[in-house]
Amino acid sequence: MKENYYSESLNAARLFDVYQTRIDRVKQYLEAEIEFVKRDLAGKERVLELGAGYGRIMKELAPFAASVVGVDFAEDSVRFGAEYLASFGNCRLHASDAHRIDFDAEFDVVLCLQNGLSAMKGDPWNLVERSLKALVPGGKAYFSTYSSKFWDYRLEWFKEQSDKGLLGEIDWDNTKDGWIICRDGFKATTFSEKDLDTFGKMTGLPYRLEEVDESSLFLIVEKQ
Predict the structure, then answer these.
(1) With contact defined as beta carbons under 8 Å apart, do 148 and 179 qualify?
(2) Closest Cα partner for 115 from 54, 168, 192?
């Protein structure tokens, strides 16, 4: 299995193609996540996104925030994103490992969306801790995973990616219980509501869980 699938195989233009889906329900899910965050923005927030890819979410949020900084491990995606975000002067995208960021009280909002805690391999609690460290007091961190109600659509979307040649052939015998397994070694999992609730409790801070659009499950933590 590749050490980091998103930096070695699913990056730049190939990652862009992932989101050019023909599945209306998946489009709705992607838009709903962004709208959920957008409605909490007043236009003056400094936003940090972990696992930002080529800047898909950054571009949507840029008109509603003072600044948007993104970090992503895949250098090819960051180079692709420089052109994708060229007309947005308040966006900056950096090639960096989210597990090693060391921002200290620099942002009002930190985002780790679209199943980022799982997609960015490594210790998810480390991502939570570093996200909270990056926040100013009163700031909020948003972590999202897939709702269990979205499983069938998630499968359909991954099959679409496989059919495009963006992922390997899906191993249907072993794809179940939230895990999607491809024969080229790619594995996509997710976190449950119980998992997110555990993370929330571990922070010792005010938090809430909220399902959005019957497709996403959010953990929102407020730093005090």
Answers:
(1) no
(2) 192
Judged against a pLDDT cut of 60, whether residue 114 lies above it is answered with yes
For 24-48, give one letter per residue: b (16+ CB within 10 A) or e: ebbeebbeebbebbeeebeeebbbb
Alpha helices in the chain (DSSP H): 5-8, 12-18, 24-38, 56-61, 75-84, 116-119, 124-134, 151-163, 193-203
Q: How far apart are alpha carbons 174 and 183 in whole angstroms?
A: 10
Instruction: Give the pair of three-digit tokens for residue 36.
Output: 């959920």
pLDDT digits (tens, 9 = 90+) for 44-72: 999 999 999 999 999 999 999 999 999 99
DSSP helix, strand, coil percent of the chain (3-state; round to 5): 40, 25, 35
**pTM of the predicted protein model:** 0.93
Contact partners, residue 61, CB within 8 Å, separation at least 6:
34, 37, 38, 41, 47, 68
Which amino acid is residue 157, in one-letter code? W
Residues 65-78: pLDDT tens digits?
Answer: 999 999 999 999 99
Q: Residue 220 to residues 98, 111, 142: CA-CA distances in angstroms?
A: 18, 10, 5
Residues 139-169: tens digit of each pLDDT: 999 999 999 999 999 999 999 999 999 999 9
Q: Are 54 and 18 in contact (CB under 8 A)?
A: no
Q: Using CA atoms, how far apart are residues 154 and 115, in angstroms rounded to an integer?
A: 12
CB 93 within 8 A of CB 33: no
Q: What is the DSSP string of 178-216?
A: TBEEBTTS-EE----HHHHHHHHHHHTS-EEEEEETTTE
